[in-house]
Amino acid sequence: MTVTEADDIGGTEAPEATTTPPDLRARVAELTQFAEAARQGPGLRATEAQWAKGKLTVRERIDLLFDEGTFREIERFRRHRASGFGLEARRPYTDGVVTGWGLVHGRKVFVYAHDFRIFGGSLGEAHAEKIHKLMDLAESAGAPLVALSDGAGARIQEGVTALAGYGGIFRRNVQASGVIPQISVMLGPCAGGATYSPSLTDFVFMVEGTAQMYITGPDVVQSVTGEQISHEDLGGARVHASVSGASGFVYDDEKECIEEVRYLLSLLPQNNRELPPAVHADDPADRRNDALVDLVPADPNRSYDMRAVIEEIVDDGDLFEVHASWATNIICGFARMDGHVVGIVANQPAVLAGVLDIHSSEKAARFVQVCDAFNIPLLTLVDVPGFMPGKEQEHGGIIRHGAKLLHAYCAATVPRIQLIVRKAYGGAYIVMDSRSIGSDLSFAWPTNEIAVMGADGAANVVFRREIAAAPDPEVAREQRIKEYREELMHPYYAAERGLVDDVIDPALTRSTLIDALEMLRTKHAPLPARKHGNPPV
């Protein structure tokens, strides 16, 4: 059977080896034939069907991911050994998943990539064993692992062995967590238990229109609840990027998506024993930031875009934001400062005044943990009025979710720098990496207001009776607000007590932070003797 004669479901029937002993040249020719059959996959009709869905083939995706000519495939001749339901008649090479390693920006990266053209990319015993081997190799070699996912879940014809295959993947995801970077790239459907592997990895990318993730599909939802919903509305890329938070990145096409995966890999270390790669920076380390004076209003009640502040102080204004569309009242992302990678967590006053709530706490906690696992210093920009009040937040577990962020910061041993831009009130000030929970250095602009609460609220609480009894309560209230602000909220109050290391000119923010990061680069913080902490998950 030729490559182009394959059906769309099972793939090309692999050629059989000759039984008579030929010479070596004949064997090499036979190898070339088999290798080409494995490379081509199930043939033209299945390939055209893949393209018609707006999706690339598995080999095209791998070519986009790796530096040209560096990919090395393993187990390309692997075939399943299942029988029944017609499987014995369809035994294509690769069994629907391509595994191997190559170079991304000159550094080693491992990949497994589903081939939807073969059994719909579904996972069977041989398919799973290939992935298990690849994951073990990635962890042993200390190099990142990328999953290019485009599979229809467990191979129903193989029964429980397929489910056991997923269990092996999940166990290895957990074992490699915090040891090597793991990136899931969702390029097609992902349903049922298969969705747990992406959720166990460090970063999830999705492509709009072709990638979906859900535990139960629209048909099951309708049969159980009566609700009618489309695949996209239930588990599409935009839903997971902006509503559920299951995806950190969403792109319009596969080429852009995979290119951004390559960029993320350029910011991450190979493993938890290395520092992230540094590059030469053309942006001067001592560049002044005079624009910040006009970007940030001194009035704590006026909003502004914290992204503009970040872009002003980092190298070339380049911020690689994670979860840009979810929990947008906090910003998390990677940038470089003087060529060195830094993880940035920042309140966003332009959204909900930058308040901390359930989702923003969870988002930031996850990001802090990733940075700490992979030796990426943390810079926290603070302009926070407190935690979001209300029954919905309290009943939803704001205490528990806020504690996730607190636990993540307290456990982090990487260099940690806090910069208080404006207000920092109450428990939210503590949680946003204050000196009291272990920040190495805390800087503040002269616009900083650090207090238990804002002056208005404080006056209403502390002087409530006095204000109520005054001949003119409003005048008395304004007087007490002024006194509270002057005595307890002036810009140098925290600095006088050693809770802020320095109050700095905003124009010197970049150079100050770069100097501090350079000083902390050799930081070593011994860990306590314990198996692991018990964070409020």
What does this structure look like?
- The chain is α/β, with parallel strands linked by helices and 537 residues long.
- The protein folds into 2 domains: 229 residues, 2-enoyl-CoA Hydratase, Chain A, domain 1; 188 residues, 2-enoyl-CoA Hydratase, Chain A, domain 1.
- It contains 21 helices and 17 strands.
- The strands form 3 sheets. Strands 10, 11, 12, 13, 14, 15, 16 and 17 form an 8-stranded mixed β-sheet that branches. It has a 7-stranded mixed β-sheet with strand order 1-2-3-4-5-7-9, with helices on both faces. The protein has a two-stranded parallel sheet with strand order 6-8.
- Helix 5 links the parallel strand 4 and strand 5.
- The longest helix has 17 residues.
- The protein is elongated and about 105 Å long.
- The N terminus is likely disordered.
- This is Acetyl-CoA carboxylase carboxyltransferase component.
- One of its GO terms (cellular component) is acetyl-CoA carboxylase complex.
Class of secondary structure makeup? alpha/beta
Under CATH, the homologous superfamily of the largest domain reads 2-enoyl-CoA Hydratase, Chain A, domain 1
* Percentage of β-strand residues: 15-25%
Unreliable sequence segments = 1-10
Quickly name the level 1 CATH class of the largest domain: Alpha Beta
Please compute the radius of gyration using only Cα atoms.
27 Å
Overall mean pLDDT: 89
Helix coverage percent of residues? 25-40%
How many distinct helices? 21
Distance between the termini: 54 Å
How many domains would you count in the coordinates?
Answer: 2
- Please summarize the sheet with the most strands: 8 strands, mixed
CATH topology of the largest domain: 2-enoyl-CoA Hydratase, Chain A, domain 1
Query: Rough shape?
Result: elongated
Number of strands: 17
Architecture of the largest domain, CATH level 2?
Alpha-Beta Complex
GO molecular function: propionyl-CoA carboxylase activity; transferase activity
Biased composition (Low complexity): 12-22
Keywords: Transferase
Biased composition (Acidic residues): 1-10
